[in-house]
């Protein structure tokens, strides 16, 4: 097969990277890279925080596009060790920009660049992250946008497919007939993996992108209502989903409203996304 694009996918062994490989790996000439990868024809081991290792990577591949999906999203770990969080999320990005000046870079970023106080954040909303994790993602975004003309940001909310942590937790508990407490005062806009892949494919394959920052996300919902929708779509008992309160629980790192809005992305890419009923039903049918 003759492929139109040569892609370097960082974080290829991670949750996001694995979804990209499974969903789009056949469309592109794709080489993966990760910190602990087993070396194969399609996968390279490299510590992206180490500029010398990134220089060696350059000798093995010259990609048209880098999908930069490696990083540390563990909020507790980033809070405890900001220096390592910076290296993993920011320095890796700087190293890629310096080493691959001709490649387009699509940086997978996060709703956590926003403070989570009011939600419905647009692509052009000013950010002010409330966590170390969010600060490192915002820092990498800013550096990339300033240093590299062909650096693009794709922000996701919590990504979900059948194997997402929250979905697996709900399936396990509800199948066993156990009640689950879910916050009705924590709003977000979870990203269905099908919507994510559709946006990413356009960003990779379109050479004339008009924007630098994109959002792939679903409609705004509480975690409680999302869990109810999941139960219904899976034929499980939605009465087992009980309301609880993040404010009363003083839950760390779950904000009142960290939802994203995506009108600018939908119009720029001429794409639809977002209804959780449809996405969850499609997922249940897979
Ligand atoms: N998952 C989500 O819902 C979500 C939502 C928004 C944004 N994101 C962003 O997507 C990125 C990946 O998330 P994920 O869920 O896929 O995380 P993950 O499952 O923890 O995977 C992290 C990936 O990064 C690689 N990696 C870490 N440090 C590295 C280094 N120094 N050099 C090379 N590779 C390194 C890991 O390699 P090894 O496995 O080989 O160690 C792994 O492939 C994060 O930056 C996060 O900000 C994720």
Structural description of this entry:
- This protein is of the alpha/beta class.
- The chain has helices at residues 15-24, 51-60, 75-80, 82-99, 132-147, 165-175, 193-205, 223-233, 246-249, 263-269, 276-285; strands at 6-10, 29-34, 43-45, 65-68, 104-110, 151-156, 159-160, 180-183, 187-188, 191-192, 213-216, 221-222, 241-244.
- Helix 4 (82-99) packs parallel to helix 5 (132-147) and helix 8 packs parallel to helix 11.
- The radius of gyration is 19 Å and the shape is globular.
- The mean pLDDT is 96.
- The structure holds NADP nicotinamide-adenine-dinucleotide phosphate.
- NADP nicotinamide-adenine-dinucleotide phosphate binds at residues 10-11, 13-17, 34-37, 46-49, 69-71, 73, 88, 92, 108, 110, 137, 156, 158-159.
Provide a concise account of the structure shown.
The chain has a domain at 6-159 and 192-217: Rossmann fold (3-Layer(aba) Sandwich). The chain contains eleven helices and 13 strands. It has helices at residues 15-24, 51-60, 75-80, 82-99, 132-147, 165-175, 193-205, 223-233, 246-249, 263-269, 276-285, and strands at 6-10, 29-34, 43-45, 65-68, 104-110, 151-156, 159-160, 180-183, 187-188, 191-192, 213-216, 221-222, 241-244.
């Amino acid at each position: 097969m003759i492929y139109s694009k040569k892609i370097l996918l960082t974080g290829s062994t991670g949750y996001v990277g694995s979804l990209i490989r499974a969903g789009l790996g056949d469309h592109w000439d794709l080489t993966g890279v990760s910190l602990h990868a087993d070396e194969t024809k399609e996968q390279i081991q490299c510590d992206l925080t180490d500029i010398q290792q990134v220089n060696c990577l350059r000798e093995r591949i010259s990609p048209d596009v880098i999908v930069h999906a490696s990083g540390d999203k563990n909020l507790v770990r980033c809070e405890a060790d900001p220096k390592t969080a910076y290296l993993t999320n920011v320095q890796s990005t700087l190293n890629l920009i310096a080493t691959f000046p001709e490649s387009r870079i699509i940086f997978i970023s996060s709703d956590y660049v926003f403070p989570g106080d009011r939600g419905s954040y647009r692509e052009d909303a000013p950010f002010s992250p409330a966590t170390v994790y969010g600060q490192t993602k915002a820092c990498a975004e800013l550096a990339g946008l300033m240093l590299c003309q062909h650096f693009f940001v794709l922000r996701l909310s919590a990504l979900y497919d059948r194997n997402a942590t929250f979905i697996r937790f709900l399936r396990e508990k509800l199948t066993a007939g156990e009640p689950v407490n879910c916050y009705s005062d924590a709003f977000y806009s979870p990203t269905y993996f099908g919507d994510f892949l559709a946006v990413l494919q356009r960003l990779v394959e379109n050479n004339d992108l008009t924007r630098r920052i994109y959002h792939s996300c679903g409609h705004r919902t509480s975690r409680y209502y999302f869990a109810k929708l999941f139960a219904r779509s899976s034929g499980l008992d939605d009465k087992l989903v009980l309301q609880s309160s993040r404010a009363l629980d003083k839950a760390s790192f779950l904000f009142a409203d960290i939802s994203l809005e995506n009108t600018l992305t939908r119009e720029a890419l001429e794409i639809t996304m977002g209804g959780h009923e449809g996405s969850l039903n499609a997922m249940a049918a897979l």
